[in-house]
Design goal:
alpha+beta, 6-stranded mixed β-sheet, two-stranded antiparallel ribbon, 8 strands, 29% helix
């Protein structure tokens, strides 16, 4: 019997910090770092740094992916994520079909209703477009450079933010 894999695409700031939470879980076939959501204009691409997850929906649901995505980010920051500033580090959920769109919008509404954050949620739900795979040096960075990966999470403020805003409240 052939597996029917689906794709999920999430932008959550620097893609170095976004791969590990999803990688190597049962039902996750692969996680790739890359760029998506933009187009070339005046020499700028407007792309987001993102990850694209290939998963088996019979083993790992899209809702579970969304529940893992939210606690990796600050959904109120429209200028980037943590110490990574700029439009390429904004947050977004890129849906690949109408079911994903509906589930992503429902998930976003649930986060808004929790009143967890005082500032408005700015994470966008956008239609998936072409995904450009990042250079090999960016793939599975947490495995290639484990010390640098941990240092990045610590110094950027991501680790502290997650602990203070998500861990006890998820």
């Amino acid at each position: 019997m052939k597996n029917t894999y689906k794709k999920a695409t999430f932008a959550g700031g620097c893609f170095w910090c976004m791969v590990k939470p999803f990688d190597e879980l049962p039902g996750i076939e692969k996680v790739v770092s890359g760029y998506t959501g933009g187009s070339v204009s005046n020499g700028e691409t407007g792309h987001y740094e993102a990850i694209q997850i290939t998963y088996d929906p019979s083993l790992f649901t899209y809702e579970t992916l969304l529940n893992l995505y939210w606690p990796q980010i600050d959904p109120t920051d429209d200028g980037g994520q943590f110490f990574d500033r700029g439009s390429q580090y904004r947050t977004a959920i890129f849906y690949h079909d109408e079911e994903q769109k509906m589930l992503a919008e429902k998930s976003l509404a649930k986060i808004e209703q929790t009143s967890r954050f005082k500032a408005p949620i700015v994470t966008k739900v956008l239609s998936a477009s072409f995904f450009y795979e990042a250079e090999e040096e960016h793939q599975k960075f947490y495995k290639k450079e484990p010390e640098r990966y941990e240092q990045e999470r610590e110094e950027s403020g991501r680790k502290k933010f997650i602990e203070e805003n998500w861990k006890s409240k998820v």
